[in-house]
Q: What sequence folds into this?
């Protein structure tokens, strides 16, 4: 480790550390514009100049381009270095507009900070400023090119880091322009990071424009709740309204960036029609009235029926506190549940995934970025867990071989191998690749059960063929990672993925396992809900009158398919329907008692991401109807009220704790700590979580309980006819899209313009069989009560025998949990008109 001296202070750093990073470890912040830790050094701005007094090269050097060397002596405040940096600032300010008062970046602008700290306050150049035309880049990012200082951060991030190509460098010399070849929405679902990465105000947050400066906001570190990755975010609110979200920094998850779904998906918390009042039989009432009515209905059910006729439904958007309290309430009262309201089969697959997630195999996003071989099976990263795409991209940039096995037309912004395979054959493909790579190698690291398991896989897949380049890449790899989804796969595939990862985890090869789970708290939902039931079985019990009372807490699928006649008929047979939520839905409107709950921004909470890391959110603000919706936008009224308009909501766990008889403090902050203490003390495997609820920036890795009795247990080998090219039926699947399918972000007005229309993706052979052309309008007849108009999208890179459509929350789907539907050709009806 080289030891050097910076500003008379000595430090030892690892090899290949840049001087700018070494100085930062000492708390010395060398000015920078082009340098960014996620992008590395490029030496474009010249503002990080230092004076090297002793070393291989002396004099003025750029600290971002200079490796720290043993014996170096460096000064950051030497007069020559300071004068050089001041000159650079003056050059940059020659053409920069003096529009700080109306620039959204003003007050947290790096150029502004450097200009003030550098002492530049007078423009000596009398000539005209260079000007540019701004471009329309879509509804999310505002473009102000006149503010550019040519640091190249934007294009390096957009083209190199994310892999998208529609934004780049145009022009030469002083006329360099950063933008598109013409107006148009940026194609990347990570374009919002341009706002964070730009050191000036060229790219700003369009939905948050002119709504406040950073010092006007209530700000807090938060966790993204729009998929299972648990990315770090920073959320800002003002006047009881969420204004904007930015990317937080977390090396083990999102590094420095987030997706646009996570950045702009908070709009559901601000909606004017968000339910904020208690209701009994659809009529607004006080909290006391609704609370008393709920208790009365529950007591009546308990006295007239068996306690098991009461069921409790939860979802993956519930906090850990809510899930644990729901579990203990059901056990104490003898109620049915809690039942996980998950898409069809995802609950079982998620539990199987957690059972196979051995501690030595757990892979983080950082492990994915640093891996040299990635086999992704049954997952579409851009649409299901967008930031995972960025991790895959960094691995690919570093030379990793990436293979995706999935029937969907998977699209990624880099070169990869795609094997479009039906769900029934994905396991065979995975096993064939692993067996071929392990063939002829030393398997002494496997137990006798592991060797028997391997031999069984070899026999099952003796006839399977896989591309040689995939097998060779896996054989050469030293840090392979298997990424496995839980939506498109069969129930046994997550277990098979875990066992395959265990087999390739050899002494000379450190393998990782990464599952993509449904929802922000899919891990917690899988751990704390009943294992022998699901939403579909629950509806069957309601239909057969085995369940008379349903308590739905922040539901997902069931909340929205209630609009179907069949679902409405089932729920009418209930004696009591009690719904607790912060979203309006057909289910909430039909509730006998409705209790408005707080969002995570208002109540805080803990979420467990897909690798078992607990991430906490502290309450950001107290909630309430945004001031701009109450009409009180003028001078403050001469009223002194103790309540906040629209702030009657409560954390979802509070009614559950009350019904369970827990004695909690009336003070909100104390009450939250008390429920945290109860949660942690009553679930031993959560003991690593602090009772304060503060898990820090990186979260706390939990010790996952191993519920599997036998490693390398024999696997069922089941097939069905879905996707069979010999069958006239075509399997209709609903799938995730980056925008428009995730429940919370689909209610965000900022994203309305980027939600694509519903298009039915199908293989060219299927389109030819059905006599359909690309862009043609058609109607899918799901059953006698449900029809879905959509548009044909022919995709060559997908499996034959399937139709894929986006799983919109308001989709008229007749089957609980959005289960696949087999369609006969007669159910696919051509319509007049098309998009061709």
A:
């Amino acid at each position: 480790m080289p030891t050097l001296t910076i500003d008379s202070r000595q430090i030892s750093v690892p090899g290949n550390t840049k001087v700018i990073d070494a100085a930062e470890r000492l708390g010395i912040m060398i000015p920078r514009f082009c340098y960014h830790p996620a992008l590395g050094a490029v030496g474009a701005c010249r503002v990080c100049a230092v004076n090297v007094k002793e070393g291989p090269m002396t004099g003025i050097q750029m600290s971002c381009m200079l490796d720290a060397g043993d014996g170096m002596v460096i000064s950051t405040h030497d007069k020559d270095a300071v004068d050089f940096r001041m000159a650079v600032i003056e050059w940059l300010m020659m053409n920069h507009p003096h529009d700080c008062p109306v620039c959204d970046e003003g007050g947290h602008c790096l150029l502004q900070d450097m200009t003030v700290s550098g002492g530049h306050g007078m423009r000596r150049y009398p000539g005209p400023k260079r000007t540019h035309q701004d471009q329309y880049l879509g509804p999310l990012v505002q473009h102000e090119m006149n503010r550019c200082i040519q640091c190249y951060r934007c294009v390096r991030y957009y083209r190199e880091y994310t892999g998208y190509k529609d934004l780049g460098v145009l022009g030469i010399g002083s006329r360099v322009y950063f933008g598109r070849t013409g107006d148009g929405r940026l194609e990347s679902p990570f374009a919002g990071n341009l706002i964070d990465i730009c050191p000036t105000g060229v790219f700003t947050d369009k939905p948050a424009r002119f709504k406040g400066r950073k010092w006007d906001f209530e700000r807090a570190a938060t966790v993204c709740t729009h998929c299972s990755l648990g990315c770090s975010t920073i959320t800002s609110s003002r006047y009881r309204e969420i204004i904007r979200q930015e990317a937080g920094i977390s090396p083990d998850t999102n590094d420095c960036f987030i997706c646009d779904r996570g950045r702009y998906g908070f709009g559901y918390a601000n909606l004017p029609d968000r339910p904020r009042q208690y209701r009994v039989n659809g009529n607004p009432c006080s909290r006391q009235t609704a609370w008393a009515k709920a208790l009365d209905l529950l007591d009546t059910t308990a006295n007239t029926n068996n306690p098991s006729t009461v069921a409790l439904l939860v979802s993956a958007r519930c906090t850990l506190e809510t899930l644990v309290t729901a579990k203990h309430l059901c056990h104490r009262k003898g109620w049915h549940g809690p039942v996980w309201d998950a898409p069809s089969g995802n609950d079982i697959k998620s539990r199987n995934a957690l059972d196979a997630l051995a501690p030595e195999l757990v892979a983080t996003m950082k492990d994915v970025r640093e891996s040299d071989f990635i086999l992704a099976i049954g997952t579409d990263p851009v649409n299901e867990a967008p930031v995972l795409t960025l991790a895959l991209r960094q691995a690919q940039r570093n030379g990793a071989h990436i293979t995706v096995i999935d029937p969907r037309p998977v699209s990624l912004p880099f070169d990869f191998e795609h094997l479009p395979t039906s769900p029934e054959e994905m396991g065979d493909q995975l096993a064939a690749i692993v067996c071929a790579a392990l063939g002829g190698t030393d398997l002494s690291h496997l137990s006798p059960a592991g060797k028997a398991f391997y031999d069984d896989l070899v026999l099952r897949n003796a006839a399977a063929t896989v591309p040689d380049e995939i097998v060779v890449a896996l054989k050469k790899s030293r840090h392979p990672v298997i990424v496995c989804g839980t939506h498109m796969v069969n129930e046994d595939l997550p277990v098979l993925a875990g066992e395959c990862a265990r087999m390739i985890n050899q002494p000379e090869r450190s393998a990782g396992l990464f599952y993509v789970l449904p929802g922000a708290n899919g891990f917690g939902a899988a751990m704390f809900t009943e294992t022998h039931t699901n939403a579909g079985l629950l509806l069957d019990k309601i239909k057969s009158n085995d369940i008379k009372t349903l308590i739905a807490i922040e539901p997902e699928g069931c909340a929205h398919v209630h609009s179907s006649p069949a679902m409405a008929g089932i729920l009418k047979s209930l004696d009591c329907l009690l719904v607790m939520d912060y979203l309006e839905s057909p289910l909430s409107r039909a509730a006998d008692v409705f209790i408005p709950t707080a969002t995570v921004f208002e109540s805080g909470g803990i979420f467990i991401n897909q690798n078992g890391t607990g991430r906490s959110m502290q309450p950001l603000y107290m909630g309430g109807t945004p001031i701009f919706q109450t009409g009180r936008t003028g001078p403050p009224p001469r009223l002194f009220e103790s309540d906040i308009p629209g702030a009657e909501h409560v954390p979802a766990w509070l009614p559950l704790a009350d019904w369970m008889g827990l004695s909690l403090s009336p003070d909100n902050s104390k009450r939250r700590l008390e429920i945290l203490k109860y949660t942690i003390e009553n679930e031993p495997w959560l003991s690593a979580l602090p009772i304060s609820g503060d898990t820090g920036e990186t979260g706390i890795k939990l010790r996952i309980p191993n519920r599997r009795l036998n490693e390398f247990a024999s696997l069922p080998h089941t097939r069905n006819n879905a996707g069979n090219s010999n069958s006239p039926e075509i399997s209709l699947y609903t799938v995730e899209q980056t925008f428009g399918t995730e429940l919370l972000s689909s209610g965000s007005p900022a994203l309305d313009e980027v939600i694509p229309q519903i298009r039915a993706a199908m293989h060219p052979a299927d389109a030819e069989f059905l006599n359909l052309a690309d862009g043609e309008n058609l109607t899918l007849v799901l059953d006698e009560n449900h029809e879905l108009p959509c548009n044909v999208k022919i995709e060559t890179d997908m499996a034959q025998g399937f139709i894929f459509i986006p799983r919109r929350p308001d989709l008229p789907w007749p089957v609980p949990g959005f289960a696949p539907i087999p369609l006969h050709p007669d159910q696919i009806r051509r319509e007049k008109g098309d998009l061709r």
